[in-house]
Amino acid sequence: MGKDVIIACDFASAAETFAFLDRFTEEKPFVKIGMELFYAEGPQIVREIKKRGHKIFLDLKLHDIPNTVMKAMAVLSRLDVDMCNLHAGGTIPMMEAALKGLTRPDGTRPLLIAVTQLTSTDQAHMESDLLIDRPMDEVVMHYAENAKTAGLDGVVCSPLEAAKVHERCGKAFLTVTPGVRFADGDVGDQKRIATPERAKEIGSDYIVVGRPITQAADPVAAYRRCVREFVEE
Ligand code: C5P
């Protein structure tokens, strides 16, 4: 499994998404489709982007009872996405059911990645709202280990956590890392960030990059710079 750059296509409509993807005439980037676009356009947007030859990370973060998640994952698997995700907070039985649902009759399946604690959840809210009083990094690593136990392929985490996840869960356990910014770029609302080069050094397997590419004056050049820094150099 090679390292790759995944573009977060956080657009509100199919029209905007295709206008963006049309700029890429020489390469077919791996793209992430999130809830906004999927709920606006439905599964057809996935079929159309697949037809154009892109790999797709469908970022819907499932979290429900095991039976429901299993059936929903079977639908996503038939959509032929390449990667999808769920909340590790749904527990090991839910993650195992998800894997079962994703697995096609021929034994193949999309990669399945777990979200541990959302990066928007801080220690204070985890304690007061969820009644979890262990330190955040301990909770995140425990959820990653649960995902591994359930047979998942990896977790979404900050690039700064990638080395620790690999230490605890093994080199082959994938780290998919948002929060990537160019050294000379805008940080925006992201807090725990790394450059593509640094993410590579720490050991991220996939970087998820949104605004540094989608809002760039020249998105294709920005994408190529990510690939150069993260994959090639
Ligand atoms: O524009 P930017 O590069 O910040 O986009 C990062 C993408 O990764 C967004 O789609 C965001 O929702 C997603 N993401 C994140 N942090 C997480 C999980 C997902 O930034 N912990």
Write out key terms for the chains shown.
8-stranded parallel barrel, alpha/beta, 233 residues, 8 strands
The tally of helices reads 11
Mean pLDDT: 96
Helix content class: 40-55%
Task: State the shape.
Answer: globular
Please give the order of strands in the largest beta sheet.
1-2-3-4-5-6-7-8
Low-confidence spans: none
Write the layout of secondary structure elements.
Elements: E1 4-8, H1 14-21, E2 30-34, H2 35-41, H3 44-51, E3 56-62, H4 66-78, E4 83-87, H5 92-102, E5 111-115, H6 123-130, H7 136-150, E6 154-156, H8 162-169, E7 174-177, H9 196-202, E8 206-209, H10 211-214, H11 219-232
Bound molecules: cytidine-5'-monophosphate.
Cytidine-5'-monophosphate binds at residues 8, 10, 34, 119, 156, 178-179, 190, 208-212.
Task: Tell me what you see in this structure.
- The structure is a single chain.
- Helix 4 links the parallel strand 3 and strand 4.
- By secondary structure, the protein is an alpha/beta fold.
- The radius of gyration is 17 Å and the shape is globular.
- The protein contains 11 helices and 8 strands.
- The model has no long low-confidence stretch (mean pLDDT 96).
- The longest helix is centred in the middle third of the chain and has 15 residues.
- The chain has an 8-stranded parallel barrel with strand order 1-2-3-4-5-6-7-8, surrounded by 6 helices.
- The structure holds cytidine-5'-monophosphate.
- The site of cytidine-5'-monophosphate has 13 residues, from strand 8 and helix 10.
